[in-house]
Design goal:
By secondary structure, the chain is mainly alpha-helical. The chain starts with a helix and ends with a helix. The chain contains 12 helices and no strands.
Amino acid sequence: MATPDSRSRLVTVAAAAVTVVAGVGVAAQHRVNGELGQRLDDGFSAALISFTSGLVILLVAMAGSRRGRAAFGTLGARVRAGELRWWMLLGGLGGAFMVLSQGLVAGILGVAIFTVATVTGQTAVGLWIDATGFAGARRAPVTARRIVGAALTLAAVVIAVAPELGGAIPAVALVLPLLAGLGVGAQAAVNGRVRAATSSPLAATTLNFVVGATALAAATAVHLLVSGLPEALPADPLLYVGGALGATFIAIQTITVARIGVLLLGLCLVAGQLLGALLFDLLAPIGVPTTGSTAIGAALTLVGVIVTAMPARRARGTENADRA
């Protein structure tokens, strides 16, 4: 008969495994939106389609959640009361830029290189957020170990793209996912504040999609005025699941973080992203083919994230004082 402790461990292992699957879902979204952007020859329209479909799913969920609707309705009052700053409501801009980057360059870079670049951006901005306490995040010292970990992720990008940089991979195509990673890292920080203020992950997530979809709609309208409409929409229905994937992996993160904590959540997501990216590039490739250097870069990225996330050891004297 299973003991409470063994059941608790099984639940934790299951939550970690599901979070790895969520990371694979992130890589799948890169793959789907990258090809949709290629087929349309329009990354802006691909991003808007993906983000809007995710918003529709969340609005349906919101319609069935009285608590979510009530929490969403208090956002303005919380800003006026000083619980939230107005710019903390704009986290969806980071997600919108990520999806736009997928549509524009994931099809050029391939899923693995795109993922390595975004994780590097997230790691770098995570160091800055921890050092400054951005958006009320808990401060953590920037130790030598964390700097080494961030440097490893940057080295991973260089290793992954060096054979193709300037040739099959234009330098500007690499800049977009790096910047997108920075935006997603900042988005996570402000989302945490909104979730804490409203006690509703659904309200915080829906706000992100509303803000992101609005920004993408405005940017796409300007783009279409200049470039014109895409010739035709692809018939393959799988190319339109990017929004559903986004809503799903965000929901999984929201549920499992309470069980496994932020640190293990981040490591599981990165592991899933890198595993999924390599699999998609091998089984359903787009963009630059996966090479040995790409695989090495992905592995080095995972090592860098683990090193960055490892907590600093406390001094022996402090540990002894804690035990006293």
